[in-house]
């Protein structure tokens, strides 16, 4: 199984890196994919090295992850390559995961229409086609969403579980006692 985390300037580092950390601990191939550069600065001024740049091989992944953070989430939303990828993943029933402000791209791609989701409070106003849920994480069909930075680990463990991997031992080793049962 392969996961890609799409990154643009101004991304929320906790939401992106916790996913990479948890999935790699779960022995999944998970790559940070720079949309425009190999070194990208987060919304809090932390420079992070990407594993690779975006190209057509992104379509070979099993799950695509969109972190929040501003202006990163808006930049992903405005990038037609991201929207095209989301549409393709949705048509193929592949997993799509977005957290915080990230779900605004799901709205633009038309993949959350009639589905339940969560996001950072206030961004739900930009996602009128979906059905907002007041919860840390939510899964509806092939869409995994998370509310914000505090939901990052629950979001990451949910992705890992949906990829067919057990998260219990990893959560235990990380001293994370909050897995949903």
UniProtKB/TrEMBL annotation:
Residues 1-161 form the DJ-1/PfpI domain. One of its GO terms (cellular component) is cytoplasm. It holds the Pfam family DJ-1_PfpI. InterPro entries: Class_I_gatase-like, DJ-1, DJ-1/PfpI, Prot/Nucl_acid_deglycase. It comes from the Bacteria. This is 4-methyl-5(B-hydroxyethyl)-thiazole monophosphate biosynthesis. The lineage of its organism: Bacteria, Bacillati, Bacillota, Erysipelotrichia, Erysipelotrichales.
